[in-house]
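Exercise 7. Given the components listed, write out the predicted structure of the assembled complex. Treat all entries as one system.
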Amino acid sequence: MAPPPKYDVSPEVPIRVTDLLNQAQIPCCLWENLMLSVLGASVEVTDADFIIPDQQMATAAVVLVSNNFKECTMSVDDCPKFGPLRGEPRPARHFFFDDGTHTGENSQTVNLWAHRSLLGHFPEIPCNVPSRGVHGHPYISAAHTTLLPPHVPGRCIGRLQDLVVEGRRVNVITFKPTPLIEHLLILLSRDIDRRPPAEHVWRSYLSAILEAQNYHGMADVAGFEWALTRTAWVALLENSPSSFDKTLRRMQADDIMGRTRAR
Ligand SMILES: [Zn+2]
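Answer.
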């Protein structure tokens, strides 16, 4: 018998949500486990997560609600899904796929994350990333690019296909692996020993990306040493060399450094 799929979200969901938001001139980039699975990581995907500009959050909510998504109206601390995740990064707004509610473990949601809560030092996601020339962007890429790993049933969503809704070409956007690693190292360096639940999340993302790198041999992660060097600069510029030292020591303990040098 085939192993059960690690994901419950159909790739049609991120394509549909991206189409709805882009039609309202709201840029969006995949995030969380959906993004990790598109990048080839073996993770469980129950939700569709997007980063969008902070100032367009209210408009995005109107767009989703007027297209048959229902917003969870509970405060984030009271919500049975995100309330228990206190201390972890949590989305700004979340929406049920239909008129559902949080029932049992199967409450799939579309989650919108505020850009500045995650990417304080990164520029906004451009609204219309041209399908050509997206490789020149510093941290995002089209989710259908052949540089991304293929779909592997039961393992990962991989690069998206059939990105057409009602004749419109949809440009789903994801992080590129190397800038993602760099960014996660910065977040880890910020939260290490200060905010353990968040530290745990960044470490699990890094592990998932490294696992995907090992499985697929992802080309874009070749600049890992560069990413580390850049992280050191940022930590020094932000006057937090001690937190960077801790990050390095943890990575050495996890043998991430050893694997990097051995490559
Ligand atoms: Zn909720």
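Discussion: The longest helix spans residues 196-216. The chain has a mean pLDDT of 81.
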